[in-house]
Amino acid sequence: MKMQKTSRRRKGALDELFGKGVAAVVVGVFLSGFTGLGGALRPLGALAFLLGVILLGLHFFLKPKASASPVHSTVRQQATHWSPAVFAAIEWRRFESVCEALFAQAGFQTRSQSHGADGGVDIWLHSANTQGPVAVVQCKHWHNKPVGVKEIREFLGVMTSHQLKRGTYATTSIYTADAQQFAKNNGINAMDGAALLGLIAKRTPEQQQALLAVAYEGEYWRPTCASCGIKMVERKPARGGAGFWGCSHYPKCKSRLPMEAALR
Fold it and tell me: Which residues pair with 201 in a beta bridge?
């Protein structure tokens, strides 16, 4: 806030300097061309004109220069092999797509829901020889926040309501000790970021590259609105403050995410 006030004061001072410079130049031109009083005011006009030029020169010299590169560049370096950096670079919807492609490579027929209320399920797994889903997958794209027992308990409730005994909870983060024990006691396959990378490493090089292509598809870094299924846009508060991701359907949809991390 203090920096914002300083920036506004500096801008005001520069605007005032520019205004005085223009005024001095105008007065100087007028007096220099004034023919009354035998041209006695011409030297004063020349002095005013020179002062105006100096003030304008100071204004342009002190004016902040535009940055050579934009703050949010759309040209981003993409990894050529799998690592935690890939999970950190992509948004939540890309993470779900990677998980879906990973299970499809394992031979499952998958069905996902891109947005809206999903009842706690992101991916349904089907088998060619069985009617209906045989398992469900919940994906949680979190950074620096462990998945707790609350999330795993809710997932178990979804499995039970659909009479399913198989379920996988996949996250880019880690699990609390209680969450790991609860998942183990209830037959839930809890996979953290390291476990997912280990599973990906078992795929063929061609399959790993195919998964990378899914991860980096489109604007992989721009978060998707969980309610509308469309890409969010960068917004800044009208009264100043940190920027954030907002739904492009605003004000119909008021979904938003912090700029530093697109979490779900």
Answer: none
Give me the mean pLDDT over the 139-161 stretch. Answer: 94
For the full predicted model, state whether its pTM sits above 0.90. Answer: no
Beta strands in 106-212 (DSSP E): 109-112, 123-126, 133-140, 167-171, 188-191
Is 137 buried (19+), middle (13-18) or exposed (0-12) by CB count in 10 A? buried
Q: Which amino acid is at 191?
A: M
* pLDDT tens track for 212-234: 999 999 999 999 998 888 899 98
Euclidean distance between CA atoms 123 and 131, whole angstroms: 16
Long-range contacts of 205-209 (CB under 8 A, 24+ apart): 207/105, 208/81, 208/82
What pairs with residue 168 in β-bridges? 137, 189
